[in-house]
């Protein structure tokens, strides 16, 4: 889990909604925060910041300010190390048993209707209308 802070050229709520829609489309995003005053976008999760900036640059002027571990993840790790009894009560499967990589979502448009792109002959369709 990491936290990425991006400088985003956003001036009003309409652009803010557009940026939030773009960022929320990524798999692995846990939280999004946009500060209009400072023009900063903060994204926490397992998303790749380079892909995020590449997508945002199609619409906005975007720069990476910083990328680092999220502070919540550090606190959670510290709590687990302090209390060994919680580890015994938890999962028995080990570290990697609960980790599953999210699958990316790819939109596949439906195939075009064949009648628009192909010329059909009367031999293929004998009941079609032909003016002789």
UniProtKB/TrEMBL annotation:
Region (Disordered) residue ranges read 70-106
| Taxonomy, superkingdom | Eukaryota
Q: Does the keyword Oxidoreductase apply?
A: no
Q: Does the keyword Lipid biosynthesis apply?
A: no
List membrane-spanning regions: none
> Keywords on this record?
Lipoprotein, Metal-binding, Methylation, Prenylation
Molecular function (GO) terms for this protein are:
metal ion binding
Provide the HMA domain boundaries.
1-64
| Family matches, as PROSITE patterns | HMA_2
Q: Which InterPro entries does the record cross-reference, listed alphabetically?
A: HIPP (IPR051863), HMA_dom (IPR006121), HMA_dom_sf (IPR036163)
Q: List the biased-composition ranges (Basic and acidic residues).
A: 72-98
Cross-referenced Pfam families, in alphabetical order?
Answer: HMA
Belongs to which family? Answer: Belongs to the HIPP family.
What is the name of this protein? HMA domain-containing protein
According to its UniProt entry, this protein's organism is Eucalyptus grandis
């Amino acid at each position: 889990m990491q936290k990425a802070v991006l400088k985003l050229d956003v001036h009003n709520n309409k652009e803010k909604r557009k940026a939030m829609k773009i960022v929320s489309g990524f798999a692995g995003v846990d939280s999004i925060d946009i500060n209009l005053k400072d023009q900063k976008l903060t994204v926490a999760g397992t998303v790749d910041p380079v892909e995020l900036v590449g997508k945002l640059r199609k619409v906005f002027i975007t720069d990476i300010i910083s990328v680092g571990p999220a502070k919540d993840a550090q606190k959670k790790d510290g709590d687990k190390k302090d209390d060994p009894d919680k580890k015994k009560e938890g999962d028995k499967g080990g570290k990697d048993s609960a980790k599953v990589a999210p699958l990316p979502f790819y939109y596949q448009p439906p195939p075009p209707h064949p009648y628009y792109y192909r010329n059909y002959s009367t031999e293929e369709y004998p009941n079609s209308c032909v003016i002789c």
